[in-house]
Amino acid sequence: xxxxxxxxxxxxxKPGPTDDEECPVCDGYGYIITETTVKxxxxxxxxxxxxxxxxxxxxxxYKNKTLDSFKADIDTRRLAVRQVxxxxxxxxxxxxxxxxxxxxxxxTGKTHLSIGVLKELIQxxxxxxxxxxxxxxxxxxxxxSGSLAQDEEERLARLNQADVLVLDDLGAGRxxxxxxxxxxxxxDQRYSQNRCLVVTSNLGLRKLEEQVTYPVLSRVRGMCFxxxxxxxxxxxxxLTPLPRKGDSSNP
Length: 251
Ligand SMILES: Nc1ncnc2c1ncn2[C@@H]1O[C@H](COP(=O)(O)OP(=O)(O)O)[C@@H](O)[C@H]1O
Ligand SMILES: [Mg+2]
Ligand SMILES: [Zn+2]
Fold this sequence. Notes:
Elements: H1 2-12, E1 31-33, E2 38-40, H2 42-55, H3 75-90, E3 99-103, H4 110-123, E4 128-132, H5 133-144, H6 150-157, E5 164-168, H7 177-192, E6 196-201, H8 205-212, H9 214-223, E7 224-228
Parallel strand pairs: 3-6, 3-7, 4-5, 5-6
Antiparallel strand pairs: 1-2
Helix pairs in contact: 3-4, 7-9, 8-9
The structure holds adenosine-5'-diphosphate, magnesium ion (MG) and zinc ion.
């Protein structure tokens, strides 16, 4: 009898809340059910958020970047990060301006800020996807020639489904008519469905229009808050880029 009692008391001991053990709150069900309510358990919320982060395809270099790690040490950066935070505070899918357009010279933190925004929105329960323009153009070309790998296929399929789409370096690369049409379709879908779009670019407006066509630029500008990230390269504060025709500081 004593032996039986020992086994029973051992079975009652709950495992500690480590990654591969069952959650002690919900016994691994993910839901806490009482007589009158069903509540989603924190462990399930956590797992869902981790899955959304994995699916967002954040590039390795930017995995640890957040809005908090963006240094606001000079006026342009202070203003940029303040405007980005205001955008997040006011973010509402039902309003008509569910987007953010970050423009500025290379190295001014556009990609960093876009990832910061993406992570904050994922934390609020949105699904998201990061796409660099050059990768997108590549994927679209491969898709049309039938040579897309499975993970690329899955990423492309999420392009129109993600609640939040970050399109990094809009207008970069050589854009054929086919690619321009596909980019138009992506942007127009975001625009007409009032879905969140975060765009970055280091091109001035004229050059951007040349690259992506006026209808795309008009939609991007129409649905986005515009934030200027400045001209000072964070990576190389001692370098001043030569003015180039068509860059963001020389539109
Ligand atoms: N204000 C900042 N605070 C901290 N890190 C920054 C800041 N601005 C840029 N960086 C870092 O410098 C590098 C270049 O920034 P990035 O976002 O890639 O610039 P851009 O996209 O404008 O070319 C990244 O590693 C980024 O995390
Ligand atoms: Mg960038
Ligand atoms: Zn749980």
